[in-house]
């Protein structure tokens, strides 16, 4: 990895971590960052570091600008209602499942309730995480294959790859890049882009949750850059 590739890896790590925060259950910090424009500024800076083209950065800017200036305290409640309706509706009629195994189970038109903890896909996500030396703190209470956990894991992999290069551990950097590529191929790419598209489709239909359509647009842009980076890494000479 050269200097530009390290910058890209850091940008992708920060972008994925920002997305993880955007799709986790909303808190005061997220609402405040969206309201005061710091989330928007960070997202644009991360996309720039990741090498996103100007058109993608402009689109991200447009989709996030509407949040700036809203009342943060009220907005937190709006986000919480939207997140609950979109992703945490009780029963099987969840508009958009936020867990990989359940999302893909439903997308494949299987009948019956999806397994949230013991499915082969969830267990394989945990295997990837354990091999990399990390596991979500709440893994026993919530499936590890949530959109926010998988995005945070991608951030962890990219961050470690960049750190290894900066510290002169070239072989370690390649190991982290390989882990990122395998996780992308076997899990993240199989559902996260579709999850973002589904969120953009469903969010405007709900009583609350329309804000998540804009966040999902940002998600699509970030994931486009992750996919492009993985492809470049695989095709390197």
From TrEMBL:
Q: Name one Pfam family in it.
A: Nitrate_red_del
Q: Which InterPro entries match?
A: DMSO/NO3_reduct_chaperone, TorD-like_sf
Which superkingdom, per the lineage? Bacteria
Supply the name of the protein. Answer: Molecular chaperone TorD family protein
């Amino acid at each position: 990895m050269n200097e530009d590739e390290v910058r890209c890896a850091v940008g992708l790590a920060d972008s994925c971590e920002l997305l993880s925060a955007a799709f986790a259950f909303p808190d005061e910090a997220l609402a405040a960052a969206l309201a005061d424009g710091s989330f928007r500024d960070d997202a644009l800076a991360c996309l720039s570091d990741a090498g996103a083209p100007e058109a993608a950065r402009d689109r991200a800017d447009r989709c996030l600008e509407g949040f700036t200036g809203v009342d943060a305290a009220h907005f937190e409640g709006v986000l919480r209602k939207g997140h609950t309706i979109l992703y945490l509706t009780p029963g099987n009629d969840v508009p958009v499942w936020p867990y990989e195994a359940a999302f893909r189970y439903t997308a494949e038109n299987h009948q019956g309730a999806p397994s949230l903890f013991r499915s082969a896909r969830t267990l394989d996500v945990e295997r990837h995480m354990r091999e990399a030396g990390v596991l979500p703190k709440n893994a026993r209470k919530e499936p590890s294959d949530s959109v926010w956990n998988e995005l945070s894991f991608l951030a962890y992999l990219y961050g470690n790859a960049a750190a290894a290069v900066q510290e002169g551990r070239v072989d370690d950097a390649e190991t982290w890049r390989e882990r990122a590529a395998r996780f992308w191929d076997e899990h993240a790419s199989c559902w996260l882009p579709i999850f973002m598209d589904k969120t953009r489709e469903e969010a405007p239909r709900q009583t609350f949750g329309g804000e998540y359509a804009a966040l999902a647009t940002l998600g699509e842009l970030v994931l486009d850059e992750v996919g492009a980076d993985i492809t470049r890494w695989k095709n390197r000479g």
